[in-house]
Amino acid sequence: MNPGYFRLKQNMEEAVQRLCDWLEKNYKEKIETYYSNVLDASLNENNQWKGSCVYVYENEGWTVFEDLMGAFSFIDAEEWKAFAKEDEFVFAAYNDAMLYAELIVITDGVVTKNFMENDDIPEDNINEGNGVADIENWTDVAAFMDDDDLVNSDKGTVYIF
User: Fold this and answer.
1) How much is the pLDDT for 2?
2) Using only C-alpha atoms, what is the Rg of the chain?
3) Distance between CA atoms of 100 and 98, rounded to whole angstroms?
């Protein structure tokens, strides 16, 4: 498995616009769909990704962006800080096939947790900050993600960049 998401404490309209501004491009396609149809909406007739795809929805005041293809992994915490501005922010991802995980938490414009474990490049591993307790390895990030009740919606919108 290789799930990943980021979430911003902001309404969906503002959060999507902020992502467009941060990426310096507008989305190519916007498809309202059910979670069960996310892949069909994201792939072209040749079963290739149409672009960088995220499944987006609001949950309890947060906008959640589920990264469908890993396009938002390996982005430096300082870059995410520019996206988050002063809003609360969480990025979490892991891949159990390559033993990789990331967790970045930003509160009030400050990176409070910056964790990355990558078995392929162990010299790049980092574990800074105390914004989330008990994060020591990739399985801790996987458990954090599994326990995140904000990341779940049967209906949302696929944005393709």
Assistant:
1) 82
2) 15
3) 6
Among 46, 16, 18, smallest CA distance to 30 is for 16
Q: How far apart are CA 27 and CA 113, in angstroms?
A: 29
Q: Which residue has the tokens 């959640």?
A: 64
Distance CA 153, CA 156 (A): 7
Tens of pLDDT, residue by residue over 61-106, are 999 999 999 999 999 999 999 999 999 999 999 999 989 999 999 9
Q: Whose CA is closest to 149, among 39, 21, 60? A: 60
pTM to 2 decimal places: 0.95
C-alpha span between 130 and 121 (Å, rounded): 23
- With 70 as the cut, is the pLDDT of residue 55 above it? yes
- CA distances in angstroms from 18 to 35, 63, 83, 124, listed in the order given: 23, 11, 7, 29
Pairwise CA distance, residues 12 & 10, whole Å: 6
CB 111 within 8 A of CB 81: yes
Six-digit token pair at 27?
Answer: 């989305």
d(CA 154, CA 95): 23
